[in-house]
Amino acid sequence: MIKRLHKEGEERKVNLIFLAIVLIAGTPLITEYTYDILARNWEIWKLISIFAFAYLICHGIFRIMKSKGIEK
Known about the structure:
With 72 residues, this protein is mainly α. 79% of the residues lie in helices and 0% in strands.
């Protein structure tokens, strides 16, 4: 579905779907891992996961802002 939308020029919809998937998957993990780190039960992969999901969320937002169909 994403490939079809991208071929049809619906870049904004593809970026919104990407951001929605990252938010659905990332938000529970970010909150759980943040709680673990604050409770001093942290491991390095939890810290890396938090930064990776934060990067993906920011990347998705910037892709939406740069995509076609948005007037500044």
